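Exercise (ungraded).
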Amino acid sequence: MIGLMQSQQLLISSLMDFAERHHGDAEIVSRRVEGDIHRTNYRQIAARSKQVAHGLDHMGLGFGDRVATLAWNGYRHLELYFGVSGSGRVLHTLNPRLHPEQIVWIANHAQDQVLCFDMSFLPIVQAVHANCSTIKHYVALCDANKLPTDTGIPGLQSYEAWIGAHSTDYHWPEFDEDSASSMCYTSGTTGNPKGVLYSHRSTLLHAFAGALPDALNISARDCILPVVPMFHVNAWGLPYCAAMTGCKLVFPGPSMDGKSIFELMESEGVNFAAGVPTVWQMLLGYLQSNQRRFSTLKRTVIGGAACPPAMMQSFQVDYGVEVLHAWGMTEMSPLGTVCTLKNKHAKLDAAQQMQVRLKQGRGIFGVDMKIVDDNRAELPWDGKTSGDLLVKGPWVVSEYFGSDGASPLVDGWFPTGDVATIDADGYMQITDRSKDVIKSGGEWISSIDVENIAMAHPGVAMAACIGMKHPKWDERPIIVVVTKPGVTLTRDEVLAFFVGKTAKWQVPDDVVFVDAIPLGGTGKMQKSKLRDMLRDYRLPGA
Amino acid sequence: MIGLMQSQQLLISSLMDFAERHHGDAEIVSRRVEGDIHRTNYRQIAARSKQVAHGLDHMGLGFGDRVATLAWNGYRHLELYFGVSGSGRVLHTLNPRLHPEQIVWIANHAQDQVLCFDMSFLPIVQAVHANCSTIKHYVALCDANKLPTDTGIPGLQSYEAWIGAHSTDYHWPEFDEDSASSMCYTSGTTGNPKGVLYSHRSTLLHAFAGALPDALNISARDCILPVVPMFHVNAWGLPYCAAMTGCKLVFPGPSMDGKSIFELMESEGVNFAAGVPTVWQMLLGYLQSNQRRFSTLKRTVIGGAACPPAMMQSFQVDYGVEVLHAWGMTEMSPLGTVCTLKNKHAKLDAAQQMQVRLKQGRGIFGVDMKIVDDNRAELPWDGKTSGDLLVKGPWVVSEYFGSDGASPLVDGWFPTGDVATIDADGYMQITDRSKDVIKSGGEWISSIDVENIAMAHPGVAMAACIGMKHPKWDERPIIVVVTKPGVTLTRDEVLAFFVGKTAKWQVPDDVVFVDAIPLGGTGKMQKSKLRDMLRDYRLPGA
């Protein structure tokens, strides 16, 4: 027997319709590539996203055709989010931090037909366009009078001229909610990048779950600054959560330094911000150096990589900002877990609560997870046993784009490549990436655990632990350290810092000082590059 | 192009799976019909709901067959919620406050096959069973040794014996998310009751929206007491929101008096409670009479009828409890609007915020609404123009059960029967039920406005405004008043209270004192019965 409720597809256009109708005057503030601060609201964003839809119709794009962006977080990018997906095309957010060759490979693989880009990425587009065989239209996200005449990019037009030619009146089409809405390629430390193709349904369910109080807790009372880029897994879904709730949005544009982020937070009354640890490190550094304090920021969500305990302590204790630890993947839209407390934790003191908060968090409703051993047998949720982490749910990938039906799933579950423990309360803790675990004498050493200890040293700015071949133990850990400006540290000082903080056999065998640790397009440490850099390194005594 | 995300149906069983796995030890506390306090948790509820599923299999019930309940809020009722719907049957919550003849009509219309009932409703079941032609199985929600032997109900068995015979291991079936999950009949002040048939999809989407920070704001940190009955539109969806978030649940059972509710809140640390105004009136009365204060309650949601401003003031100002005004209908699962503030309201002072809070609230994402005139033309959102309120969305009814495809919709919208204004920020305010509006000399008088003034009088316990035939003005309002215990009021004192609070022509023509105003099965004032009671009344001068 079928229920007798109204049949209504879950479509991204309904988010913008809702924001326009119920939160028309809620503000969207952007620091632009042009350097100035731009103010608009959902009513205008809705009108302009409808102009985008007309513009794509006018270009002759069909249902499901891909429209690529190379853009910072800003209002025009937001208009593309809704205009492209709302009209039935697929928004493909390219990561401008990738190597031009990778961008070409990805754009061709995705068969992008349009590329919209911020003027700061003009050099990239000039470098790649000749090799992007499927792109027919290039749009620069700027005013008509800012468009250079001699870019060498055929048919380049300005965004404002393009959309300005069209009506703000548009009837969003209705179609199957399982239709593709957007795509994002994983940066792919090994092999070719892989495309994840989200659907309208997966995006809306993810937005519902993401806005819940146990996840990012987003309401019309919030003023949110997504530092996490809109080209990185749809800024963790925040643009969709924002339209679903009508919250105020503040976009940082290209200015991700501590001073710029801090000033924007203060001037716009930001109470919630989202980003990766490396960006927060810069922000905290700015605050510390300049004796500043947040006056409106109440919560941050930190994901993309494990948040070092010292950073979480600093946010919570020094600045009174609640840190939500989160974990996810491009293949998961991306939210999998968020670390929020339970009713039972209200009795705990601050230090005990911090122990809970340091884990990556609990699964949000919709995502199921399990840890398994090498034989795929499920392991207990005891907070100690670690195993390969597998997930499933309606916003988890089923197969990669263009992979001809090859399934990455194992018995219906997606293998995350992370190694984790899960405790009896369902709190998951990543112990390592499976490829970063250090196998020493038959035991596993978590590279993250070692890094967290090093990061707690007051003179250490960044630290990476990697395994090195060892004739007797198979692998032994070393710690690669970047010191803070003006600080000098010795090998022995760093190693002495480990004493009493971990088992003796888990202490690194050596310390390597470097000027910088290579970061990937999403701000994560690139250990594969680090291993390349240290190709000629030999362990002491090995 | 179809997205490449995992295909997973939205099923009620997934809520209980999640609660069991991620929040197994979160408590469910019930005051039982037996009088004692019973404690269990999601892990045990999950196990026992699986026993229910086996029990229904054993009875030979097919997919979509109806299982009725006549039960208070309690853990066994919760087990039936998940065991019945999870196994593919339809949970039909009968309202025990209806007249036995109505119960018979509804049970026969729904073709219920099983009836599970609390022992306090044994007399009802004894009165109706001979006429319930489709019910084959009767289950008393009690221990085997509490089952009377001479009830006259054929084949009556105890719930504990019934489920105790079965395994706690059960594989929830997977099926189409549009399948019917549960049903509820509208109490129907005119005509026959009408059945609303919810689906798994509508229930899960409603739970997502209901738990959002802009709606009921439910998380694993909450301890929730649903005073609103589980036989009244699924307790506003709270059992589903609870399983989705793993919050602690506290059930009041049959004890709805102020003292019982208050004591349960205090002993269990309840921070959020939900109910209709009449129940809160009793609770506030108890607190005032006994000089008590809430020590843990932080928020209440009040719906089912407009919350009198005096009650909202008392909660907020006297007791520091935030009141969320909400509005919905059986046909809407039921949530339509919840009154939460926006970012822009943070600047307002408490009195200005209260003006916003007194409205029924903003539409939550998923529900669209509009107001129309007699020609179905949409009216402006100006906060002044009132019109018939229409709604649509994925948890709004499309047709009534057994109505042979007759659609109650108007151009795809459901006409709520309410008259409302909507302001520029999307806040909706019910001005009246369309059938309760008083038409006086070509102008409309809102019966709710008149009642709110009377309810603010310190000597008034309850007040109802109804229109009476008038030879010159067509209708004129009178106010029917129940005074507080020990208070004596005169007609002139009540009428004098209106002076300066409303336009002179909106002041009632007369005051009628009664001992009690008839309340319906859901605690709402029954104006149709009141009109019957006053059948012989004549207006002064009419």
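Further reading is listed at the end of the chapter. For now, observe: The radius of gyration of chain A is 24 Å. The longest helix of chain A spans residues 42-59.
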